[in-house]
Amino acid sequence: MKTTIAEVGKHVNESVTIGVWLHNKRSSGKIAFLQLRDGTGFIQGVIVKSVVGEELFEQAKHLNQESSLYVTGEVVKDDRSPLGYELQVSGFEIIQEAHDYPITPKEHGPEFLMDHRHLWLRSKKQHAIMKIRNEIIRATYEFFNDEGFVKIDPPILTGASAEGTTELFHTKYFDEDAYLSQSGQLYLEAAAMALGKVFSFGPTFRAEKSKTRRHLIEFWMIEPEMAFMDHDDSLVIQENYVQHLVQSVLKNCDMELDVLERDKEQLKKIKAPFPRITYDEAIEFLKKEGFEDIDWGDDFGAPHETAIAEAHDQPVFITHFPTEIKAFYMQPDPTNEKVALCADLIAPEGYGEIIGGSERIYDYELMKKRYEEHGLEGPAYEWYLQLREYGSVPHSGFGLGLERTVAWISGTEHIRETIPFPRLLNRLYP
C-alpha cells in the first residue's frame, strides 16, 4: 500500500511503500538507520541485515545522501521518534542514486546556502519554516473567510505608486510607463466600496536598497480593506487575526516548532487585546531609555521598535503617527490634525513591524488637498480620488507582511529563510 510519511499513523503494524529521499544515515554492525523524507515529513527507517539479506543491507550502507528510493516496510510505534513512528524496512528500490550532494551535515556559510537555495529547502529546518509559512497562509484564508471577507486580486502592473514613493521597479507597458506593485491597497479600497470587506494576498515589490535582516525586494502581503470601519474597529480585526495565526501554528505545527527549537511558551502568551501606545508615548519612552537622538516627527528604526517591543510580552500597537511621515491617504485625527488615525503593530522579541494600517481619508475635499500637497496627478490617480465622489464612507485597512510574520512566529532570525526563493539586493537567483 502506497502512503506518505504524514499518513503512517493510519497504518500501524501494516506494510506500506513510500517514495522518499535519503536525508542521512548511520549504521551499527548489522543494523542501518536511514533518515528518510518525502516532503510531508521525516521518518527513520530501520534495516536489519538478517531481515533484508546481505546484498540489500550492503546497498543500504552505501547509499548516498539525497538518493531517491521506494521503501517498503512495516509501520511501528516509537515513542522516541518526534513523529511517534518508525519504519521497519523489508525492502527498497533505488530510483536515482545521488553523488556528491553539496550540502552536507557540516556547517556551511549563508552565501553558500543561498547559492544552493534550491537544495537547502530540503533540510529539516527549512522544511519546518515552509510548513509554518503554509499554515499561516491557510489560517489567513480561514480567518478572513470566517469573518465574511471577499478575496480580491489587485493588479501587479500599475501606473503609479500606492505610497507616493519612488522606490518602484519601472517597466514599459507597451508605450506607457508601468511599475511593479508595492501595494494593492488603492485597488482594494475600490473593491471595498463594492463588496464591503475584502482582502488580497499577493506579491509586492520594493526597490529599496536595504540589506537588513528584515527586508526583501519581493515579498508577500495580506491586505484587508473594510467599508464602514473606523481606526479602532480595524485594530480589533488586526489583533484577532494575529492571535488566530499564532494559535493555528501552535495547534497544527507543533513538530515544526520543535525542530526550530522555538520557545512555544512565548507564543502561548499571544492573546488579544494587545497593548496600545501613542506615538507621543513612544517618543517619551524612548527618551527615557536613552535614545536622546529621537525627536517628535522622526520615524522609528529597528533599535527603537526593539526597545518598545522588549517592554511588552505581547505585540504592541503604536498609534497616531505624525501625518508628515505617513502616506497621503491616512485620515487625520479630528482632535489633532498633526497626527493620523494609524498604527504599526510591533512583534515581540525584536522582530519589528509586522502590520501597518490606518483609517483612510474619505472626504473628497481633503483628499483633493492631499493630492495637491503630494503632486499626485494624471489618470493613475484620478480614479482613486473619484472613489470619494460617489458614496464615500469611512473605511480602514492594513497590510501584514507574510515573511516578517513567519520569521517572528517560527523564531527565524533572518527573513531570507522565510520565503522559498528570496530576492535580495544582491541576489536574483536561484
From TrEMBL:
Highest taxon, organism lineage: Bacteria
Top-tier EC class: ligase
NCBIfam families to which the protein is assigned, alphabetical: asnS, PRK03932.1, PRK05159.1
Catalytic reaction(s) noted: tRNA(Asn) + L-asparagine + ATP = L-asparaginyl-tRNA(Asn) + AMP + diphosphate + H(+)
SUPFAM superfamilies linked to this entry: Class II aaRS and biotin synthetases, Nucleic acid-binding proteins
Domain Aminoacyl-transfer RNA synthetases class-II family profile: 130-430
Record-listed E.C. numbers: 6.1.1.22
CDD domains linked: AsnRS_cyto_like_N, AsxRS_core
InterPro entries (UniProt xref): Aa-tRNA-synt_II, aa-tRNA-synth_II, aa-tRNA-synth_II/BPL/LPL, Asn-tRNA-ligase, Asp/Asn-tRNA-synth_IIb, NA-bd_OB-fold, NA-bd_OB_tRNA
Keyword Glycoprotein: no
Protein name: Asparagine--tRNA ligase
MF (Gene Ontology): asparagine-tRNA ligase activity; ATP binding; catalytic activity, acting on a protein; nucleic acid binding; transferase activity
GO BP annotations, alphabetical order: asparaginyl-tRNA aminoacylation
Subunit structure: Homodimer.
CC per GO annotation: cytoplasm
Gene name for this UniProt entry: asnS
Location of this chain's protein in the cell: Cytoplasm
Family matches, as Gene3D superfamilies: Bira Bifunctional Protein, Domain 2 (3.30.930.10), Nucleic acid-binding proteins (2.40.50.140)
Membership in a protein family: Belongs to the class-II aminoacyl-tRNA synthetase family.
Key words of the record: Aminoacyl-tRNA synthetase, ATP-binding, Cytoplasm, Ligase, Nucleotide-binding, Protein biosynthesis
